[in-house]
Design a protein that fits this description.
Blueprint lengths: L16 H23 L2 H23 L4 H5 L3 H10 L8 H16 L12 H12 L20 H10 L8 H4 L11 H10 L4 H4 L5 E2 L2 E2 L2 H17 L6 H20 L7 H6 L3 H8 L10 H21 L6 H19 L16
Antiparallel strand pairs: 1-2
Helix pairs in contact: 1-11, 2-4, 2-5, 4-5, 4-6, 5-6, 6-16, 11-14, 12-14, 12-15, 15-16
C-alpha cells in the first residue's frame, strides 16, 4: 500500500482572502434583494457609490504607500466593507453621507492601522457610528415599506433623491416617507421606543400601520434573507456558529426575561430578533475575523456580550438600534477575552498551587 505523507495543515479546501470575501458578498445577496424590494432602489444606489469610493480610496492610499494596490483590491475586503456600510444607512441618504463614511472606513479605520489584518475596530461599524454622531438627521431618515407609502419611487427617482433630495417628479424625502394617510412613518424600533416613552403599552404600539401582526412590514423578510445567507456561510465553513449563536441567544434571553417581567413595557424576543440589524450584525458584522475574538470560547462570550449590549442600548439608551455601538465596545475587549480563553498548551501541567511548571 502507498501512503502519502504531508505536513500540516491538512485542510483540503483552501480559500484565499478574495474567495472568502466574495462568498460573504454572495451570501448578502438575498437580504440585499429583499431590502431593495421593500425599501426601494436607493439601496442599490448607495451600494454603488460605496463600492466606487472604497476602490478609489484603497487604490489611492496603497499607491501612496508604494504597495501593490491591484492585488490588495482583488481581496474584496474593501468592497465588502463598502457594502456592509451602504446597507446600514437609509436608502435615500444624501450621496455625500455614504462617500464620507466609506472614505473614513477605508482610509482611517483600515489603512491608518496598517491595512487588512491590522484594524482594531470593524471598519463599517466605526464609520457608521461616525456618521450617526456627525449627521443624525440624515442617518435616521429611513423609508417605510413601499407598500405603505403614497409615492413609490423607481430607480430614476432613487438616483434623483440621493443626489438632489427630491424625486424625478419633485417629491421631497419627507413626502416619500409619508404613508397613504399623510403621516411620516418611522422604523419599527423607533415606533415602539417612541410609543413606550409616550406611555403606550407594547401591544398598543403594535397598532401602528408599519406592523403586520407583531413584526415590522418588510423588516422581518429582510432579516430572513440575511439569516439565509448567514446559514450558508456556516454550512460553507466561512464562519462558525459561535458568534452568531451567542449573540442571538443572549438577545433572546434578555428580551425574554424582560418580556415575562412586564410585557406591557418591553418588546418580545421575536420583535427584537427580526427588527433592525440584529441578524445582519450576528452573521456578517460581528464575525469579522480581524476584529473579533479568535478562540471558540471567546467567540461565544464575544457574541453574547454584543447581544447583551444591543438589548441594553435599545431598551434604555438613546438609539433604537445598537449593533454598531455594541460591536465597537466588544472590539475593545477582544484582547482581554482572547487572553483568558486561549486553549491550554498540549502537555501543560500545573503544580498544587495552580502555577504552570
Amino acid at each position: 500500500m502507498n501512503y502519502k505523507l504531508a505536513s500540516s495543515p491538512h485542510q483540503h479546501v483552501r480559500r484565499n482572502t478574495g474567495q472568502v470575501m466574495r462568498m460573504v458578498i454572495y451570501a448578502l445577496i438575498p437580504g440585499i434583494l429583499l431590502q431593495t424590494w421593500f425599501f426601494g432602489f436607493g439601496v442599490l444606489v448607495q451600494i454603488t457609490l460605496a463600492i466606487l469610493t472604497a476602490v478609489i480610496t484603497e487604490a489611492s492610499i496603497l499607491e501612496l504607500r508604494k504597495r501593490d494596490f491591484e492585488r490588495a483590491i482583488k481581496d474584496y475586503s474593501a468592497i465588502l466593507t463598502a457594502i456592509l456600510l451602504a446597507i446600514s444607512i437609509p436608502p435615500f441618504a444624501p450621496w455625500w453621507v455614504v462617500v464620507i463614511g466609506t472614505f473614513f472606513a477605508i482610509a482611517i479605520v483600515k489603512q491608518l492601522y496598517g491595512g487588512l489584518g491590522f484594524n482594531v475596530f470593524n471598519p463599517a461599524m466605526a464609520a457608521y457610528v461616525m456618521l450617526l454622531v456627525s449627521f443624525p438627521v440624515q442617518m435616521t431618515q429611513w423609508m417605510p415599506a413601499q407598500s405603505l407609502t403614497t409615492h413609490q419611487p423607481g430607480i430614476v427617482d432613487a438616483i434623483y433623491a440621493v443626489f438632489t433630495g427630491f424625486s424625478a417628479d419633485g417629491f421631497s424625502l419627507m413626502q416619500l416617507q409619508s404613508a397613504v394617510d399623510g403621516h411620516t412613518m418611522a422604523t419599527p424600533l423607533d415606533a415602539i421606543k417612541t410609543g413606550l416613552a409616550q406611555g403606550l403599552t407594547y401591544e398598543e404600539g403594535l397598532q401602528s400601520a408599519i406592523f403586520d401582526g407583531s413584526l415590522g412590514i418588510g423588516w422581518w423578510w429582510v432579516s430572513l434573507g440575511y439569516l439565509l445567507g448567514g446559514l450558508y456561510l456556516i454550512r460553507a465553513k466561512i464562519i462558525n456558529w459561535h458568534i452568531p449563536g451567542g449573540m442571538i441567544a443572549a438577545m433572546a434571553v434578555c428580551a425574554g426575561i424582560m418580556f415575562l417581567v412586564d410585557g406591557d413595557r418591553f418588546a418580545s424576543p421575536l420583535f427584537h430578533l427580526f427588527n433592525g440589524s440584529l441578524i445582519l450584525g450576528a452573521f456578517f458584522i460581528a464575525t469579522d475575523p480581524v476584529s473579533a475574538s479568535t478562540t471558540n470560547k471567546g467567540r461565544v462570550i464575544f457574541g453574547a456580550a454584543i447581544g447583551f449590549w444591543v438589548y441594553i442600548i435599545r431598551t434604555w439608551g438613546g438609539y433604537p438600534d445598537a449593533i454598531a455601538f455594541a460591536v465597537l465596545i466588544m472590539n475593545m475587549a477582544v484582547p482581554l477575552i482572547d487572553y483568558y480563553t486561549r486553549p491550554r498548551t498540549y502537555g501543560h501541567q500545573k503544580t498544587n498551587k495552580g502555577v504552570p511548571k
